[in-house]
Hints:
The chain is 77% helix and 0% strand. The chain is mainly alpha-helical. α2 packs antiparallel against α10 (205-219), α4 runs antiparallel to α6 (127-152) and α12 packs antiparallel against α14. The longest helix has 28 residues, at 63-90. It is globular and about 55 Å long. It starts with a helix and ends with a helix.
Amino acid sequence: xxxxxxxxxxxxxxxxxxxxxxxxxxxxxxxxxxxxxxxxxxxxxxxxxxxxxxxxxxxxxxxxxxxxxxxxxxxxxxxxxxxxxxxxxxxxxxxxxxxxxxxxxxxxxxxxxxxxxxxxxxxxxxxxxxxxxxxxxxxxxxxxxxxxxxxxxxxxxxxxxxxxxxxxxxxxxxxxxxxxxxxxxxxxxxxxxxxxxxxxxxxxxxxxxxxxxxxxxxxxxxxxxxxxxxxxxxxxxxxxxxxxxxxxxxxxxxxxxxxxxxxxxxxxxxxxxxxxxxxxxxxxxxxxxxxxxxxxxxxxxxxxxxxxxxxxxxx
Length: 315
């Protein structure tokens, strides 16, 4: 029953992705539209959704528990990255792409896929926990992940400074989240019209995110995908090893059951889209992460219901 519920929860998301794919195929939408949707989600609708969800679903006495959740998320992602890095050396994969492969293995698409998937599975109460994992995922990627992708390239031609990395970490969604937390801490009563405005704008997030994914899949040439040992390693790492590491780390923390389920789902999601962007910026192999993003998005249609079932049994 849980497995079927997971599939039913994913189906609306799948249909919206298919819609985005079809609209791109018939040339109604293109890459510029995809970029526009991305900006609207990241800079407008998602910050509004984060603010609304925090002030509606969190209370002051829950905040200390959130800190432990953030620590657990950091540890699980860091452990996954270290294992990936060492595995590339152990299995004698292309060490010139060690940073790129480790990032694909460890970092997931916590917002564009993670948010709508977790909302579909668990409802709006899951959103604060989605952002906790997002904070850890984003922070580690724009520091450790970025540094090692840059090291892959002998003469990197990009200007990602530390300042820019911090700008990525303290993104509009995180700021929306922090404003909501601040309001809770100081006991500020948010006017209802602001709450309603944030709610309506936030509701744009899921459909725009899924249409964005559909366009991205259409624009990725899957004919170039070769199922070699490296691809097998990365697919297994993203969909099996990383979630198992997350479950192991969570075993040592006494967290909210819903938070633990969200973290497991987040850890099994498709590859983080920003990896391809950074690879392009540093003249690394942009095509490989793009293909892995598309492949793991397709694989997630099977993986997410499975982990929904596992999470219901384990936690």
